[in-house]
Amino acid sequence: QLQLMESGGGWVQPGGSLRLSCTASESDFSNFLMGWFRQAPGQQRDMVAQIFSGTTTNYANSVKGRFTISRDNAKRTIFLQMNSLKPEDSAVYYCKARHFDSGAEYWGQGTEVIVSS
């Protein structure tokens, strides 16, 4: 059972930056599609960014040019660098893993990001 542990959330003023991290418990990490999702109160959980085993990435339109997803397979960790943050970026951010072969999906517990002055 893959376990995911997020960190790096917190409060930041508009225009500021935060870096989220998500570390996986298994060494099979490179065989997982990794992604960040977010969910604001009363809203559905939406994809923010995804990264395949190498450097291929996919972003939601709302974060393109501001957020960057990356991964370090040796450390079993993905990152989400968030710049030029806006109040509408406030949400609980979740890390998700999906195994390329089995399709099994796993979620982290979430880390809250608050963008407010």
Describe the protein's topology:
Layout: E1 4-7, E2 10-12, E3 18-24, E4 32-39, E5 46-51, E6 57-59, E7 67-72, E8 77-82, E9 91-99, E10 105-107, E11 111-115
Parallel strand pairs: 2-11
Antiparallel strand pairs: 1-3, 3-8, 4-5, 4-9, 5-6, 7-8, 9-10, 9-11
Oligomer: single chain
Q: Gap between N and C termini, in Å? A: 40 Å
Order of helices and strands: EEEEEEEEEEE
How much helix is in the residues?
under 10%
The mean pLDDT is 95
What does the overall shape look like? globular
Low-pLDDT ranges = none
Strand-residue fraction? Answer: over 45%
The main pleated sheet reads as: 7 strands, mixed
What does this structure look like?
Helices cover about 0% and strands about 50% of the residues. It has about 120 residues and is mainly β. The strands form 2 sheets. Strands 2, 4, 5, 6, 9, 10 and 11 form a 7-stranded mixed sheet that branches. A hairpin with a 6-residue loop joins strand 4 and strand 5. It is globular and about 45 Å long.
Structural descriptors:
four-stranded antiparallel beta sheet; mainly beta; 0% helix; 117 residues; seven-stranded mixed beta sheet
